[in-house]
Amino acid sequence: MENLKNKKLFLFDIDGTLAVGDTLLDGSRELLEYIDAIGGKACFITNNSTKSGADYVRRFREVFHLQTTEEQFVTSGYLTLKFLLENYMDQKIYVLGTASFIAELRKNKLTVTECCEDGIACAVVAYDSELNYEKLTQASKVLLTMDVPFYGTNPDLRCPIDFGFVPDCGAICRMLTDTTDKQPTYLGKPSPAVVELCLSRFGFTKEQTLVVGDRLYTDIACGINGGVDTCVLFTGEAKPEDMTDTEYPADYAFSNVKELWAACALS
Length: 267
Prior knowledge:
Strand content: 15-25%
Mean pLDDT: 95
Structural class: alpha/beta
Low-confidence stretches: none
Strand order of the largest sheet: 5-4-1-13-14-15
Helix content: 25-40%
Shape: globular
């Protein structure tokens, strides 16, 4: 645990790691206070594309009673927006996603359609808590009748919720792949761009950085791809037995965030 005392920049997944639904997990507040006390920075890296950075700042303040800033949040929605602005600024984009996500894209001057129509340059699928069969029909039609790139905001199969899990973007994309035989390229975690963006924003080194999450194939893979240390917490999708045979081994593993806080404070 010696290396934990050198960590200053903590890149946290949110759902299943620091919180489940509207419940902040025991030890999360104490760990965030510890990071502030040592002059470090907490950054929240989430594959949930249904909320913007401003939405998360409001949620942390109103639900968790924690003060944060927009720059502390890096969402798969933000990374997708950044990618689309760089590559599809003046082209028509088909999007399957929440009204909030689509509004954010349009606010940034992207041309978005939710229907299969002429002139579409690419298809984007996000985690959609407003999903219905008509959206799946339109997405299938785009992918089957047009030769366009297929992007997903994130590969997560399950999103933690108070009673367990609900289907996430990866599960929606799998359904579309099974229907159309088209495979998506994912833009959020585990892309190393997530780590690189946080390092550039806050000025810490890779050696000072720790990615903390509950999924091996997104959170831990993101840290590995970004060249920083990783920590898995068994409060979400990953289980201890998953660590015995994985291509994404975490450097540290704890049962919960309270144990990670204790290890950091005592190291």
